[in-house]
């Protein structure tokens, strides 16, 4: 069955390939939050498994994650805490996190809170606040990137001219895609908003940079990371 294309054209997520950690202490209990970009449920569950091994002596490894451009996969686990006091507050902290005024679009993100019990009972309300604050505090410190579905366009140039043209395109603010290197030509790729005006403006800019010698060719669309200013 063919996968349906997402209705969403952009969302906010974490940079790939690194974890973001933050620790909070509440009445001698330690709450260690780990955030990671996860594109699948398997990735999310893998994070939980790895932290169970790393913090094998902790009492709880509570988790929540949101997956997909449309945020259609949302799961949480209390991992032994009273029902509704850990996983759900963590999930709400992810789901309601504003990445711009009035915009809550965080996705492909997992949060795991490792708790070391400090000997003082927090009560249901205290647990909800602690787990929610743990995730919110970690998100406030983590860098974010925008992930957009952009049109990839390519241009083939002589290998000797490729480096300078790529630098000029980056300096002009273009988001670069994957470059293909060959003996006869180098193919540079740029990621553009998927509309005719943006593509034509980019083509005109490229012609200006190369005295009319380079042309843009449309390829498919891809999800591309764009740093948040």
Task: Write a structural description.
The protein has 229 residues and is of the alpha+beta class. The chain has two domains: 10-143, 2-Layer Sandwich (Ribosomal Protein S5, domain 2), CATH 3.30.230; 146-227, Alpha-Beta Plaits (2-Layer Sandwich), CATH 3.30.70.240. It is 30% helix and 34% strand. It has helices at residues 41-54, 87-95, 123-141, 159-171, 196-209, and strands at 10-13, 19-26, 29-37, 60-67, 73-77, 109-116, 145-157, 175-176, 180-181, 186-192, 217-227. Strands 1, 7, 8, 9, 10 and 11 form a six-stranded antiparallel sheet that branches. It has a five-stranded antiparallel sheet with strand order 2-3-6-4-5, with helices on both faces. Strand 9 (180-181) and strand 10 (186-192) form a beta hairpin. Helix 2 (87-95) packs parallel to helix 3. It starts with 9 loop residues before the first strand and ends with a strand.
Topology, pairings included?
Elements: E1 10-13, E2 19-26, E3 29-37, H1 41-54, E4 60-67, E5 73-77, H2 87-95, E6 109-116, H3 123-141, E7 145-157, H4 159-171, E8 175-176, E9 180-181, E10 186-192, H5 196-209, E11 217-227
Antiparallel strand pairs: 1-7, 2-3, 3-6, 4-5, 4-6, 7-10, 7-11, 8-10, 9-10
Helix pairs in contact: 2-3
Which properties best describe this structure?
229 residues; alpha+beta; Ribosomal Protein S5, domain 2; Alpha-Beta Plaits; 2 domains; 6-stranded antiparallel β-sheet; 5 helices; 30% helix; elongated
